[in-house]
Design goal:
The chain is an alpha+beta fold. Helices cover 30% and strands 26% of the residues. Among the domains are: 258 residues, Beta-galactosidase, Chain A, domain 5 (Distorted Sandwich); 109 residues, no CATH class. The strands form nine sheets. A nine-stranded antiparallel sheet has the order 1-10-11-12-13-20-17-16-15, covered by helices on one side. Strands 3, 4, 5, 6, 7, 14, 18 and 19 form an eight-stranded antiparallel sheet that branches. It has a four-stranded antiparallel sheet with strand order 29-30-32-33.
């Protein structure tokens, strides 16, 4: 598979070196993510963000490891970190010659002729992270590693008076016991508490840019100085079997991890090298969910959880496109089990909490995913299993269910009322709705029509007549074209509600053109796509609002309310590109493939910005120049 190789020109200073990062995940919601120069540029970046309960009860355990080389009585720091008082900054990246990201991240340091190669790995299905150093030195000396510890819930800081107990097998704090294994020697030190760590990427985005950590011990390794390679390692784990790790076991695991990722790429059936890499990246979002006993999909790292709408949007790409059919069924079954009055959860329960159902699109997108699964696999048995739930969804959307979701007399679906925000443009600031879409949203009614056609087609598999669904679909199509299509403008209304927002030119209409069953004509679709290409398309994603609109925000940043007001008011989003490319293929069957190929080629360059091999959530609306928001 592709690998990215970087040299010291990428980290001439903190600002340049913090622009790129890597991500490793463990299939439990836990992750490891730092910058390419090895430091943390955000509070939520960590060497080990463990999942105490998959996937969202997470603990920030080890922020980083502070490496020090001692030769001839002189210490050299390889660790890098910024502090609020910039004169305290530790700049070990000055000795970093190269960084490589393939299956795992690898750093290459050189200090006075001493070569140090560092590799980090994260074990699938475990809250285990390993750090291996391969050292070649012609001088005697020592190499030491200090864990930079937090032991606080994700998003929180050290508690006042928080104790850290350390022995030769584990670290305990805040009710969590973390085991560790190493071939080095434990040395206790005077405790240092840092409450002035500076995280520039958070500060840039308007988040809290100050963090905390504790250092109270080191793992020390002796360098023989005979020029031969020595291997030093430390493994941190919430499992209690760290004694199994040794030099040979770690080397074997690294080989197995490379093969595992290669198998994911091969299983996808994709020949394009960028596509293969995206297949591996997509697999990183599939996670266990302890509260349901099934699988789920994380919406993003490092900030997001597994949400119903995001899961249904990403499910075809994160499972079907890479050949993970059983994973797809597991996730669909999880949602089927939690269907309530036609709605599917947007947020799953944790502990004694109940699911939250505040989404109008998750259930309708579920119908589409079942259909796409059927088209991909021909699995009629699963269609029969899912069909009662699919019928239940349609029944309740017709009858009416929570959040003012109900079919109107014209066959169209209306949703939302009061302070409810139930489409993906769901920001609410106290009692302010920056993007109110109460009424009949354009994409929701496209999903509705698509779902009715799907039930019409699949009904015979369960011995039923689907003609009633087809008849209702005809009514929906007639009403949709009469009320959404604007002939003079050449595009669709965004929402039917009689307000100023009704005719705003937004990216939601591309979803109408990307579904298996279409309502607009070839000519109408081509006119829409021409407008979208001119006003919304960028190589990184689609603008959520055209630039000429008075409500357009050219950039996103600042305080939380400022970010929220810009979130769907022109900010570029990556995920609608999938719908855009599908729409181009649907409505430009001859020349569309070339346009999509060009778009994918340009999109690939964004996989080398921000989080390597991943695409970001959002970018500035005026001109995407760097990733914003959730970087993976």
């Amino acid at each position: 598979m592709d690998r990215i190789r970087l040299n010291a020109s990428e980290w001439m200073d903190f600002r340049s070196g913090e622009k790129k990062c890597f991500l490793l995940t463990n299939g439990l919601g836990g992750y490891c993510s730092l910058t390419v120069m090895g430091n943390a540029a955000r509070n939520d970046q960590a060497l080990l963000m463990g999942a105490l309960k998959a996937p969202t009860v997470r603990e920030h355990l080890i922020s980083n490891v502070w490496e020090t080389l001692e030769v001839d009585g002189e210490e050299t720091e390889l660790f890098s970190q910024e502090f609020v008082n910039r004169t305290q900054n530790v700049e070990g990246f000055r000795f970093l010659e190269g960084f490589e990201m393939g299956s795992l991240p690898v750093w290459f340091y050189r200090v006075k002729g001493i070569e140090i190669e560092k590799t980090i790995g994260m074990v699938q299905g475990e809250n285990t992270v390993l750090v291996r150093y391969r050292v070649r030195s012609g001088k005697k000396g020592s190499f030491s590693v200090r864990p930079v510890m937090r032991f606080a819930a994700k998003g929180e800081q050290l508690q006042e008076g928080q104790d850290f107990a350390v022995d030769r097998k584990c670290i305990a704090s805040n009710g969590v016991i973390l085991s560790y294994g190493t071939n080095g020697e434990l040395q206790m030190e005077k405790e240092r508490i840092w409450r002035d760590l500076f995280f520039e990427q958070d500060a840039r985005d308007g988040r809290d840019g100050i963090g905390s950590a504790v250092v109270n011990h080191r793992i020390r390794f002796e360098m023989t100085g005979d020029g031969r390679e020595q291997v030093f390692f430390v493994v941190y784990s919430l499992a209690d079997d760290v004694d199994k790790w040794d030099e040979e076991r770690i080397a074997l695991w690294i080989e197995e991890e490379e093969k595992r990722q290669e198998m994911i790429a091969e299983k996808s059936g994709i020949s394009d090298p960028v596509g293969k890499r995206l297949a591996v990246s997509a697999s990183q979002y599939i996670t266990e969910r302890a509260s349901t006993g099934g699988k789920s999909i994380m919406a993003g790292f490092p900030y997001f959880a597994d949400w119903g709408r995001d899961t249904m949007i990403s499910l075809p790409g994160c499972t079907l496109a890479i050949g993970e059919y059983e994973e797809c069924k597991s996730i669909l079954r999880t949602f089927m089990a939690y269907t309530k009055e036609g709605l599917m959860p947007n947020l799953f329960p944790e502990g004694d909490a109940l699911p939250m159902y505040n989404t109008v699109d998750a259930a309708l997108l579920f119908l589409d995913v079942v259909y796409e699964y059927y088209l991909e696999t021909g699995d009629v048995e699963f269609v029969r299993e899912a069909f009662p739930v699919m019928e239940d969804i349609v029944f309740w959307y017709q009858k009416g269910t929570d959040f003012h979701i109900k079919m109107d007399s014209d066959g169209l679906i209306m949703a939302g009322g009061g302070l409810e925000q139930v489409t993906w443009m769901d920001v609410r600031i106290d009692k302010e709705l920056p993007t109110p879409r109460h009424g009949k949203p354009v994409e929701i009614n496209a999903y509705w029509y698509n779902g009715l056609r799907i039930l019409e087609e699949l009904a015979p598999f369960v011995g039923k007549d689907g003609s009633a669904y087809g008849k209702l679909a005809e009514q929906v199509k007639k009403s949709f074209l009469e009320k959404f299509w604007m002939e003079e403008e050449g595009y669709l209304k965004d929402v039917l509600n009689g307000t100023y927002e009704e005719k705003q030119f937004r990216c939601n209409q591309v979803f109408v053109l990307a579904l298996p069953f279409q309502m607009v004509s070839q000519k109408q679709g081509q006119r829409i796509l021409q407008e979208v290409k001119e006003k919304l398309y960028t190589t990184a994603g689609l603008r959520s609002l055209e630039m000429e609109d008075p409500a357009f925000h050219p950039w996103i940043g600042g305080s939380q309310p400022e970010r929220d007001r810009a979130y769907h008011q022109g900010t570029v989003w990556g995920f609608p590109l999938g719908a855009y490319f599908r729409a181009v293929l649907n409505y430009f069957p001859k020349e569309g493939k070339q346009e999509v190929r060009r778009g994918l080629d340009r999109l690939a360059s964004w996989m080398q910005e921000g989080c390597l091999f991943h695409l970001a959530e959002i970018y500035d609306g005026a001109a995407p120049v760097m990733s914003k928001g959730c970087y993976a």
